[in-house]
Write a structure and sequence with these properties.
The chain is an alpha+beta fold and 260 residues long. 23% of the residues lie in helices and 33% in strands. The chain is built from two helices and 22 strands. The strands form eight sheets. Strands 9, 10, 13, 17, 18, 19 and 20 form a seven-stranded antiparallel β-sheet that branches. Strands 14-15-16 form a three-stranded antiparallel β-sheet, with no helix packed on it.
Length: 260
């Protein structure tokens, strides 16, 4: 059986994955804090019929070998943590990170997650929470009687209770040695693991950390034009691989007719 069938089939599967990933990026073009991902591919093991550099006699070696590939496979997906465009919302509880860093949030079950989505709101206790109810951690409380509050670029939270200005706390942010290794959990949240490394805790404005911008949200970093180009190239690559299978089928058909 022609090796081209299997090589081309692996190529078609690879393009299907590429389109799936691109479609997810485009679907989240307006998702707050979303980070696009791309798929890494690698070629499969080669069938080496003649080693390059093999002796061919009289002390001479072959300058090239005969190596036939077996297609491609997806190695993994990597998130791109380039900065998204920050848009002013006018809401005091919305915070955007400009630069490196993640907010740490805690789920109702106590699980720790990380996010770039700063669309927080105050709950009934005066804590800042995400739209899913995850509490910004380490948590602090803004008293219900506080008529207004502010968040500085370094994360210091101040409020006015009608008579005096007070500080409720300071927002901490976190970064990772390898943020691309974070596990996507959905809901704009990530989970650390062995690939990402342990979270490094700090404050906005510290060395290696970004700053905070109150009243704004970071948009998705998806570039629609680039994703559309990916769609076109994936579609064309899929068609070309299918043509290779069709060509192989025609060759086998011709071979079969020779013995009739």
């Amino acid at each position: 059986m022609l090796r081209a069938f299997y090589s081309s089939a692996s190529g078609m599967r690879a393009q299907e994955l590429l389109i799936d990933n691109t479609a997810n990026n485009l679907a989240n073009v307006n998702t707050t804090g979303f980070k696009k991902s791309h798929i890494n591919f690698s070629d499969l093991i080669y069938d080496v019929r003649k080693e390059p550099g093999a002796a061919v006699g009289q002390g001479q070696i072959a300058p090239i070998g005969l190596q036939i590939g077996n297609g491609t496979r997806a190695v993994g997906t990597a998130n791109s943590f380039t900065q998204g465009v920050a848009t002013d919302t006018g809401s005091d509880s919305h915070v955007a990170i400009e630069g490196d860093g993640f907010f740490q949030v805690t789920t109702p079950s106590g699980e720790v997650r990380y996010t770039r989505d700063g669309s927080f709101n105050r709950n009934q206790l005066g804590e800042l929470v995400t739209g899913d109810g995850f509490i910004l951690s380490p948590s602090f409380t803004i008293p219900p009687e506080a008529s207004e509050f502010s968040i500085s670029s370094t994360g210091v939270v101040s409020y006015f209770d009608g008579t005096t200005n007070s500080e409720a706390g300071q927002i901490q942010i976190f970064r990772f040695p390898n943020p691309s290794g974070l596990k996507n959990l959905g809901g704009n949240t990530y989970q650390q693991n062995a690939a990402s490394g342990d979270a490094i805790q700090g404050f906005a404005g510290d060395l290696g950390f970004g700053t905070l911008r109150q009243g704004a949200l970071e948009g998705s970093n998806v570039e629609v034009v680039s994703e559309l180009v990916n769609l076109i190239t994936a579609q064309r690559a899929y068609e070309i691989n299918s043509r290779a299978i069709r060509a192989g089928d025609e060759m086998l058909s011709t071979t079969g007719q020779l013995v009739r």
